[in-house]
Each structure stands twice: as structure tokens, then as C-alpha cells.
Design goal:
single chain, mainly beta, five-stranded mixed β-sheet, 0% helix, 36% strand, globular
Length: 83
């Protein structure tokens, strides 16, 4: 895993999953951890909207409608970061 991008392998193939910039949030996934990812394919990778960990914890990355909340850059105010 590099930053919030990681390779998801399902036994039939692999794809790069993009879960947004690290300054917005950190995933802290472990190598080999089983996850379910909901999102959409975009150009060369899979943009994650929701990641569900094997233990049932749900990580909400972004809303599928509209631009991602980090589109305004790191100086933008958002609920996941202390100001």
C-alpha cells in the first residue's frame, strides 16, 4: 500500500484502489487484510466510496455524487481534519 492507494486482488485479477489523499484521512489497512470496496472505475484505477473491513468496520471515503470533498485541496475545511 502506498499512501491511500492499494492493490486489491480477488483471485481473478488485481486493480489499484484509490481512497483519496492521506492529508484528508488515513486508512491504516494492513497487508493481506480482507476488505470489500464499493466505488467506480476511473481511467486507470478504482475510486473507493466505501471500504468495509473484514471485521465489519465501515470506512466512508466519499459520496459517489459530485466531486470528492478533497477537490479543493488541503486548505479546504472538512469534518475529518482538525483545524
Amino acid at each position: 500500500m502506498v499512501g491511500n492507494e492499494f492493490i486489491l486482488s480477488d483471485g481473478t485479477g488485481e486493480i489499484i484502489v484509490d481512497a483519496g489523499p492521506m492529508w484528508y484521512h488515513q486508512l491504516n489497512l494492513q497487508l493481506g487484510e480482507q476488505v470489500t470496496v464499493v466505488g467506480e472505475y476511473d481511467d486507470y484505477d478504482f475510486d473507493a466510496f466505501i471500504i468495509t473491513r473484514g471485521n465489519g468496520d465501515v470506512l466512508t471515503i466519499r459520496n459517489p455524487q459530485g466531486p470528492p470533498p478533497w477537490a479543493g485541496g488541503p486548505d479546504r475545511n472538512h469534518p475529518n481534519r482538525d483545524n
